Amino acid sequence: MAEWLELSDIGRILIILIISGFMPFTAVSFLTVMLKRKKKEFRKALTEMDISTSRSVEDTYSVSRFFLPVVFVTLICIVAISFFIYSHDLSADMKDNLLLTGAFFGEGRSDLMYQSMAVLSMAFLGGFLWSAQNIIRRMVAYDLSPNVYYSAGIRIILASVVALVLSFIIGEGSSQSIVSFRSSLGAISFLTGMFPERVLTYIINLYKRFVSPDELNEQVLSLYKIEGISLSHRERFGEIGIDNAQNLATASLTKLLIETPYGARQLLDWIGQAKLVCYAKENIDNLRQVGIRTVFDLIKVRQTRERLMEISEAVGINTPMLQVIHDQVVNDKGIQSLYKFHFGVDSPEKDTEDAIKNSADAENMPLELDPQP
């Protein structure tokens, strides 16, 4: 019997090491194998657009920048999986706990404490599996930045707290209400671990009278106003501090090339749309009706006043307003630079290995790109 218990303890420790070791293993794999391809793609994009920049891939993807976030999420995984595996031992001596009973603290609700422990465990599993899937996907796409590990750790913590709060909301009231939902709380908690933001949004909507949303950022300047941006794209931009169209319109192209997995063509199209959204705001849908999707569409042909009047009449926009938007766009030096780069990435002769090899001539490239709106 003693030997079986010893093997059982070894097995538990192995499970803890395997699960928590996933995070440092993926970081080491990316830095030693995948990073070379990221550097090559970045040099290719700069060559296509004739951009000279002091930025480098190593500024973001260095061993020193990975160290703290990987340690952070690894420690969280060790604590969480240990709690999960040794939950039976912990529950034996557990007393009334404010975290596990919430508003019922002091009532000696052992059933609620056990329920909360199950909720936390399932939320951790959901958060860990989603984060592991995301890390693998990002590693294969050569997009595994250090912030991913911070996000994974915060996601696991957020998922656990949100699942616990939701379990209190679902089960608030009588003890019979709590027991009746136990069969579904495991699945709900696991899904909360997978999608904590959506569940948090649900909770916020329940108490929305206490929340004052920023309607300009949520509607007029939402990233969803940009064609081609999905929920996953929005979440990806959110990792680097881009939460709305104005943030994207003023972002550095070279920084986005390094810190996101998206190509130069896609980023230029999105930035061009974001800038037009910032200028046109509520009128953006009207401009798209006549094929004006980005600021580049406004400057491809120098519009005359008569032409602008025709467009304004066709889409129902005030002519002086459209004239102001047009003048602001064509006089914006940052947009002019982006317009040149836009032609560069669309040029087929640039997309060759010879162009990549000639990237050593970067000193003669004309512009340092950090465009302002």
Overview in brief:
This protein is mostly helical. It has helices spanning 2-49, 63-85, 87-92, 98-101, 110-140, 147-170, 175-180, 182-194, 196-206, 215-220, 231-239, 245-249, 253-259, 264-280, 284-288, 295-299, 305-315, 319-330, 333-345, 353-357.
What do you see in this structure?
Helices cover 70% and strands 0% of the residues. With 373 residues, the protein is mainly α. The chain is built from 20 helices and no strands. It folds into 2 domains: 149 residues, no CATH class; 126 residues, no CATH class.
- Helix vs. strand class: mainly alpha
**Distance, first to last CA:** 72 Å
The helical percent reads: 55-70%
- The residue-averaged pLDDT reads 77
- Helix count equals 20
Give the overall form: flat
Number of strands: 0
Q: H/E order of the elements?
A: HHHHHHHHHHHHHHHHHHHH
Strand residues, percent = under 5%
Number of domains: 2
Q: Regions with pLDDT < 50 over 5+ consecutive residues?
A: 1-7, 172-179, 350-373
**How large is the radius of gyration?**
26 Å
Largest sheet: none
